[in-house]
Design a protein that fits this description.
alpha+beta, 3 domains, Arc Repressor Mutant, subunit A, Beta-Lactamase, Profilin-like, 14 helices, 5-stranded antiparallel beta sheet, 12 strands, single chain
Length: about 325
Amino acid sequence: MMISTQANQLVTQLYREAYATPIAEFKQRCFELMAETFAIDSGTWITRCEREIPFYTQDSFTYQLPDGFMEHYHQLSTVSDQVHQVFGVMLGNLGKTLDILDVVPEDEWFGSDMYKLYCEEFDLHHSLMTVTANPLNQAVNVVTFARNNPERPFTQEEKATKEFVVPNLIEAMRVNVLNSFHINRSDPSAYRAVSDRYGNLIEAEEGFMQLINRFGLLQENKLVPNLDADKGNQITDDYQFSYQNHDGLVFIELQTAPVLQSLGKRKLEICRYLLEGMSNKEIARQMDLSPNTVNNHLKEIFRVLHVSSRHEAMSYLVRQQGLNELSS
């Protein structure tokens, strides 16, 4: 089926928004654009890696739906069971866009508790669902459109158009996440990552991965710090770990403690020469010290910086903007 000019323009705009919109506002802006193209009344966008746990508000972005919408279906066991049966079918049809009536026969659907006790309450008379999964990080995105008018079902053309748009939508989100690593940093020395609220990493800077392994913050491929709250901050002698939940995307910053201040003037001078690429002998000659004394100073510097080699020390000092700090 030929994709309309309007759908192609929507995709172009989604990518533009990926660079222009802050991560906390990105899903809202995407749904505003998609609502114009598809004439939808409401929708949801869930991003996470856990597949067996029920969906909650903290996991989800909801568009034009009331607070607590995602928790509502947990109150009715029959509805909760049906929601997860439908999700199971969608997991078996990754990348495909299906109407609820493609999943549940019409006579069964309109007589179900899910429709009578849940969808009717929120005027969700017609819905289109698309589920994608990233094989690299296991992140699942569940994107649902809904209409309130029972007399206006989605057409086959609209289903095909949504199936075309959603992969571009997910890639635009990835671009938005990666772009957010490099702009508006609260601290230039911090490294960034995005996870779901269960601690499964979705995207991360290389330096972030180095630090979580150094400080033992990753166990069984999950982040150790608890991410249940809307935001949090954990400070130790070695690092500061802070996060904020944006509709199921948990944005994390991790930075090492400012240990350079604990080094004496002479060790800071050695660090400066280290960053200039000098060998131990050259440093000794520059500072009028014996090579053995420089070696001893470097061992102490490595201990303080929690590194085991001069290359790791240089990497650490560059990360902490060591050149500026050591030159002041």
